[in-house]
Fold this sequence. Notes:
By secondary structure, this protein is an alpha/beta fold. The protein folds into three domains: about 25-140, Rossmann fold (3-Layer(aba) Sandwich); about 165-375, ANL, N-terminal domain (Rossmann fold, 3-Layer(aba) Sandwich), CATH 3.40.50; about 380-480, GMP Synthetase, Chain A, domain 3 (2-Layer Sandwich), CATH 3.30.300. It has helices at about 5-10, 25-40, 60-70, 85-95, 105-115, 165-180, 195-210, 220-230, 240-245, 270-280, 345-350, 390-395, 435-445, 470-480, and strands at about 15-20, 25, 50-55, 75-80, 100, 120, 145-150, 160-165, 185-190, 210-215, 235, 260-265, 285-290, 295-300, 315, 320, 330, 355-365, 370-375, 380-385, 385-390, 405-415, 415-425, 455. The protein is globular and about 70 Å long.
Amino acid sequence: MENWLIKQSELVPYRTALVYEGKTWNFKQLKVVVHKTAGKLAKFAGRLGKRVAVIAGNTPASYFMVLALQQLGVQPVLLNCRLAFSEVERQREDADVSVVFVDDVLKKSFGGYVKKNAHYYLISELDAILPKEPSIIQSFKDEEVASVMYTSGTTGQPHGVLQTFRNHFFSAVGSAFNLGLNPNDQWLCAVPIFHISGLSIMMRSLIYGTSVVLVPHFDPVKITQILVSSPVSLMSVVPVMLKQLLNLYPSEGYNSFFRAFLLGGAPIDAVTLDRCKERGINVIQSYGLTETCSQIVALNFADAPSKIGSVGKPLFPVQVRIASKTGEIEVKAPNVVQGYLNDQVSFDDKLTQDGWFRTGDLGQFDDEGFLFIKGRKDEMFISGGENVFPNEIEAVYVKAAGIKGIAVIGIPDKVWGQVPYAFVEPETDFELDDAMLKLYGKKHLAHYKVPQKFIRVDQLPRTANGKLKHAEIRKNFLKNNNW
Length: 483
């Protein structure tokens, strides 16, 4: 397929492509600055290799760098800036990367390593380089790797996911068929571009020829101001972001162009969705993975009010089924990747004999074909012969007064095999009362689902897209027998 950036610069050269803190680039200007960045990378010719890593911030510099690498036919490896340096190094070595570009906004965290390590460079070091005429890829081959992104590692060592141009294209197609496509759409990107939720917004912009409003980080006050005063039509959020925005929802509402929040990353409670419904805010729940290049299942505008709690129906052209014996969600689609970097065996182990990808998530369809997520297969545990899904317990307790966040895991028990323990992130100054919380649970849950113990934590560990790290919680608890 044709090079997306070049194509849009020819089709809609003067349409806005990127907005960042008051500065705007149209597609013609975006192509110029990206190709200029590609020309500056000529200094590293011979060192760039097949892949280059980017420790990206939500800034134009990182945005341009990712696109410039694609223009050169170099695979950008998106590394999570929230990782410890030792974790970053493991992924750099796994990806066989010789050059790592660090966004200057992350200088405080990584500046010391840039000085000491020959592999690391600040993006600003390109400023003093005179660009050469770059050798730009004129067309993208469908199966060429467009990006490498490591899984969040909620249950083990992260895998480098090989996302192709074809994968990104069909992910964008499915989203457009579900949400509709307006050439004047502006998608607000407050999620990290090193994560698939952020990168997919960038890729959709190039495929659709629509605008991205990029913000450096999620600030609910600033975001609310943008949603009120700017013609933003869509925004991707995770549950914690949506809740904070609801607390600041203005009486006059958002701008007249605003269409919906696309909600992903983790399940959301019905109370929060009811609050959105009362305010007339469209929330499109969705479900996807790094291995599917973003969403594969989503609600549409018409079904959203009547199917609260569901993530929707499979998008076009995605097939989803539920394994009869395990209840695991399995998927087949052109946006499902074909492998993991340096670990094809682990990827192949996730495929069924007839080629469907096993997601590791448990779910069920209702009578009308809407999918409901029950939780992770590896998080489910058995207590006294009964299957217990932490997600179900968490959804009940997050409605209780004083609870900001909660994570439930199974703890070994001599009598029942495993019993649920809850780790609670309370609201400010809220005192946990085990007896009251157990009584609350008994009113809403079967007795074997009520946590045996409630442990206060200052902050629950989460991935970049808001998913609870149950495995990390379990590991720390079993290691120390306390928090």
